[in-house]
Amino acid sequence: MKQRIEHIDSIRATAVLLMVMVHAAATWGPPSSTQPSALVYLVSGMGGLAAPLFVTVFGWGCFHGQSTTKQRLYRTAFFVIAQTGVNASSPHLFDLWTPGVLTLFGLLTITQPLWLHSLRRRNHQTLMAFSSAVFFLIAFLPSIQGSSDWNTRVQVTDAVQWTSHALVTGTYPLFPWVLFAVFGAWIAKNGGEKSLFPQTVTTKAALVGAFLCTLATLIYSATYDLEWASPTGDATLTFFPANIPFLTAALLGVTLLWMLIERFSVSSLTLLGRRSLTVYLVHFIPIGLFYSVDEAQSFTFAQSMIVVLAYTCVWWPAAHAWDRLAPRMNVEQLFRAMSKD
Fold first, then answer.
1. CB-based contact 93:27 (threshold 8 Å)
2. Which is higher by pLDDT, 327 or 31?
3. How many angstroms separate the Cα of 334 from the Cα of each of 15, 83, 117, 278, 329?
4. Are 277 and 334 in contact (CB under 8 A)?
5. Would you call 59 helix, strand, or coil by DSSP?
6. Global pTM value
7. Residue 191 in 3-state DSSP?
8. pLDDT, tens digit, for every residue of 216-237?
9. What are residue 237's phi and psi, to 5 degrees?
10. Highest mean pLDDT: which of 59-73, 144-158, 166-180?
């Protein structure tokens, strides 16, 4: 068995905690009428990096993993079924058949030979080709990703609509989110023996370029009194659908987070990282059961933020308690058992 890399588990833990925070904020967060504050911007900004970081570290794992066609089929089926379970536990967020990030993992798994093969042979050229193709299609065919209306992106009435949402028009479709998986695999390819983030003249130049582009979007938004970032709607950066400014800022944010966690890895996060899939699936259950609490209690801004942050942080010690009480009862064990060849 390969030795686990501590900072990779810390990255997985950070990714899943950010995902928990996003879903908690969508359920119990401050009302839309709340005046923006530094804390709101911080939570929103970090939340915007949740899925990109999650998909990037998934791509890293795909590169280092070995799997047969049969194993990939089992894993894909597992992810699609698990997504349906997530949807059933959170009806206030998703339709039952809405493709989500787990569906994306399934599609990335089944298409793994397509996007990994060329990266193993020509890593820099493959990353550039994927990035260029994604940015080109978004720039010249913006309608390909469908509507920016949330309800339209999560509604599924038939198999054709499910396929469309899973591939291009949903919340986390294969296009353009495969870019983050390719980025994660590129990190794995060039990370060296200790899997450090590759810091070459080229990567540093790209990092500076992405920073300047993101700074330009901030200046542009301030100059023309536009909202800088929003999940949907009229903003400079939008997540649903993912536009070029968002993808650029997300790649920058993932890079900075990755390098920061790599340098200051927190050992107590590693166990949570090893249970990241379990936490991702289970955290929807309390959200689904108590999603209407804030409506009944009329949470203030402060109360909403406390609830969101407390619910996020509680999964850190919960992962340790779970490991002590039931070390073999987790989704990762089931996943490995189901995907044995």
1. yes
2. 327
3. 21, 15, 28, 10, 8
4. no
5. helix
6. 0.92
7. coil
8. 999 999 999 998 888 888 889 9
9. -110, 125
10. 166-180
For residues 27 and 308, what is the distance between their CA atoms, to the nearest angstrom?
A: 9
Handedness of CA 16, 285, 39, 51 (dihedral sign): positive
CA distance 280 to 262: 22
- pLDDT of residue 37 exceeding 60, the answer is no
Burial annotation 131-168 (CB, 10 A radius, 16+ → b, else e): beebbeebeeeeeebbebeeeebbebeeeebbebbbeb
Partnered with residue 238 across adjacent β-strands are 230
**What is d(CA 179, CA 245) in angstroms, rounded to the nearest whole number?**
14
Q: Closest by alpha carbon to 109, among 178, 196, 160?
A: 178
Given a cut of 90, whether residue 86 has pLDDT beyond it is yes
Distances (CA, A) of 318 to 11, 14, 272, 275, 281: 18, 15, 9, 10, 14
pLDDT reading at 310 higher than 80: yes
- How many angstroms separate the CA atoms of 155 and 330, rounded? 30
DSSP H or E segment with residue 229: strand 229-230
Per-residue model confidence (pLDDT) at position 193: 60
Going from the C-alpha of 328 to that of each of 198, 233, 275, 337, the distances in angstroms are 35, 44, 11, 12
Domain range list for the chain: 6-338
Mean pLDDT of 166-192: 93
Q: Which two tokens stand for residue 192?
A: 């060296």
Q: What are phi and psi of 233, to 5 degrees?
A: 95, -160
Q: What pLDDT shows up at residue 214?
A: 95
Q: In percent, how much of the chain has pLDDT > 70?
A: 90
120 — pLDDT class (breaks 50, 70, 90)? confident
**CA–CA distance, 140 with 95 (Å, rounded to integer):** 31
CB 115 within 8 A of CB 130: yes
Residue (of 201, 315, 216, 203) closest to 259 by Cα position: 203
Task: Find out whether 168 and 145 touch, Cβ atoms under 8 Å.
Answer: yes
Q: In whole angstroms, what separates CA 218 from the centre of its chain? A: 23
